[in-house]
Design goal:
Elements (H helix, E strand, L loop, with lengths): L3 H8 L12 E5 L2 E4 L3 E4 L2 H4 L8 H13 L12 H12 L7 E5 L2 H16 L3 E5 L8 H5 L17 E4 L5 H6 L4 E6 L2 E2 L5 E2 L2 H14 L2 E5 L23 E4 L10 E5 L1 H4 L18 H16 L6 H11 L7 E5 L2 E5 L3 H13 L2 E2 L9 E4 L7 H19 L1
Parallel strand pairs: 3-15, 5-6, 5-7, 7-10, 10-11
Antiparallel strand pairs: 1-2, 2-3, 4-12, 8-9, 11-12, 13-14, 14-16
The protein binds pyridoxal-5'-phosphate.
The site of pyridoxal-5'-phosphate has 14 residues, from helix 5.
Length: 396
Amino acid sequence: MHKQSDYFLKHIAQTSDAPLLLEIERAEGIYLYAKDKTYIDCISGIGVSNTGHGNKKIIDAVCRQAGKYMHLMVYGELVQEPQVQLAKLLTDNLPDTLNSCYFVNSGSEAIEGAMKLAKRFTGRHHFTALENAYHGSTQGALSLMSNDYFSNKYYPLLPSVSFARQNNPEDIEKLITTETAAVFIEPIMGEAGYLPCDKEYLIAIRKRCDETGALLVFDEIQSGYGRTGSLFAFEQYGIVPDILVLAKGMGGGMPLGAFIADSSVMSCFMDNPVLGHITTFGGHPVSCAASKAALEFIIENDLHKKVSDKSELFKSLLKHPAILKINGKGLMLALTFESITVNRAIIAKCIENGLLTDWFLYNENCMRIAPPLIITEAQIHEVCSIINSSVKEICG
Ligand SMILES: Cc1ncc(COP(=O)(O)O)c(C=O)c1O
């Protein structure tokens, strides 16, 4: 008899020759249940399941909304309560200048929307991004990525992008000019191995954007929704971006993204021509209901406020000479090992020992620790004990 994995390999488009091939039947809290094995989810489906799997509040919101209505009409025509309520909750928790939400389906699409909006608002087409940033897999987002390993087969991409070195103030004046439409920043660079930007550096970028009229866009697709110890990472930097981009954890497990700006900026999409960005499914009512429930759950349980202590506990428990460094902020942590080979072997061993983790697209010496934010102290002990013993099994 054929197994599901046979059909998966035969009929599901493959993107590598080494998929994980785990068959998960059920997920709850931080646990993923296969037929004969349980895994701890230490990566939250790559920064998504912040509120844990099978979250009752989110499931209830999804079921309630699915029972009322699902898709009714393309984006921006009908007043759909779940969208409106989510926008209200989000903007109530954001500074005054981030008051208008455009909901889309994914992170990449939100980045595309932010790029288009910056072009419309400034009348410019030049972008600046950080070296080794990851902003998504569509062609606009790929243009913002300096590392051409994943993009060079899709050339030509957008022609006018400059890349600044993270935390290097020398590049700011040179690469952000009166020609720049927008500067795209991940406050904690995800696929580079969870490398946080320095506060002074981001303040200097904010200042330079103000001087030149470039818009400052924060890609908080991974760092938003509580992951770094505040609802949004920018709050810890004392500056406000012109456009905030969200996705991943935002959907509470459902597909959703957003770019959020001041209505004076967002209104550029309204005329000359109208329909500046169009989406059929963006802001799907069920996804918006899930997202609102997820944000409420984080706020009601102070999940974001407990992240720093949990992060410190991880750092204090992960001890082995082979762990050269721990980068990151909050529950975006990256363990550095001496080589790709060692890292890959440790990741494979962790999975064998029942802990799902991963490497980074642009930093293959590093292992990802980004569990659901609901993880308890006892569970952190359990996770660290599996990681420490897996490291020991590989490195001695
Ligand atoms: C920082 C960041 N930006 C953008 C994206 C793209 O999001 P999506 O995969 O939902 O298109 C990702 C996805 O990993 C991301 O981590």
